Amino acid sequence: xxxxxxAALMTIxxxxxxxxxFKTRDGNIYFNPNKNQSNKEYSALSKEATAVLNADKSExxxxxxxxxxxxxxxxxxxxxxxxxxHTNKYPNGTYKGKLIGFDKSMLAKDGEYKLSSEGTVDMHxxxxxxxxxxxxxxxxxxxxxxxxxxxxxEDHNIEIPDLVKPKLSEATPLDAxxxxxxx
Amino acid sequence: MKRILLISIxxxxxxxxxxxxxxxxxDLVKExxxxxxxxxxxxxxxxxxxxxxxxxxxxxxxNLQFMIIHxxxxxxxxxxxxxxxxxxxxxxxGFANTYMSFDYTPVRWMNLGLAWSGNTSMEGTAKxxxxxxxxxxxxxxxxxxxxxxxxLDASEKLDTPNDLYWNRMSFLNQLLIAxxxxxxxxxxxVPSWVHYNIVPYGNQDLHDIFSVGIGGRVKLSAKQAxxxxxxxxxxxxxxxxxKSGEIVSYSPNLFSLGYDxxxxxHIFQFFLTNSAYAxxxxxxxxxxxxxxxxxxxxxxxxxxxxxxxxxVQTK
Lengths: 183, 315
Hints:
The structure holds two protein chains of two kinds. By secondary structure, chain A is of the alpha+beta class.
């Protein structure tokens, strides 16, 4: 009886160790909501996104504290927090999804791979299905996922006043760069 | 038997931790919520001014702010009679005082500014942030800043031996102690010290004038707020001698009511105040407006900031 239990336990432990997960704490997410992308007043960047990759299941999850977005214009940062994203009430933006076309053997070999990801973005209290191409670059033990995507403010119940609307893109383009060190 | 129980409990724990790993996101959320963060309070006030007086807020790092503070004429002049309707509460009176300034924040804790401060005077300002209200890793209940102003009366030079520019200077040192009590309510305590290098006609040899003020804000919505400020002069307002040699009594009070409106790009602050002067130094030391509400004036602050230093770079 004991032996059976022990064996069961061991398999569970071994299984657990085998699950290949990678974690990072310094993912970068950049965006500029302005229609005119060369207007850098609106440029914002977070360097504090955390992400996990489960290589066996081709699953990813990402969490970014909304207050970690810093804008070139401090007043816009204040508006972002206070008026638009209500970051005291909704402190995090998250993503959970699958990597399509991903195989863990890619991580073992340097190269560039075209993938896509499908999942759910949860931001400002609203969930929205997400689908976008993703590029994976593997080099020297670092796997970097780069994703250029767009998010619509209205999909996440973010109210933009009419006065401000003409200045902003209908769908905000974002760039996410998430690197995992594999050793 | 005991051992089996122990092993199965350990096993349960392990399988538990594995299934937790299964939900990658839950794992991240759990980790995020278990880390203690530094929650720095932002937007104690909408603008760098409560109304006339400085607020504890500072222009953002790497940002340049342009500000106009405009005081119209007195809202009701008894000597004008019916013409007061044409004067439109002082807005059409032909009298106004304007303060225009540029200020820049090279590093997060320091702001430097230059202003045309009305009545042919100019000012240089320096503002320092000493403490930011925050919770989490550190708990600071208050935000503390200080303002230092050097004021120069730049009007046409008189032919008197004493009229050196050095003697035309005056200074203001102010401490700003603020707390954001809730999303809507903020308050600030403002002790001030005005120093005149030379006091016109003796002024009882009074070079230093002290006052204590309070300021506050109540938010009506995300973009609108009501504000007020009150400052009380502690000395040098009764029976002082002014420039023309007359004995005058100034009003020791500075009182203003305001309405903040944030349009998304600009911040407008409309106000009613009992001082026509544009400079804080005059408002806090030689305010001539007494209890007569007709002598109060309407005005507005308008400011806009520009990102000069681009901290965030694109690829």
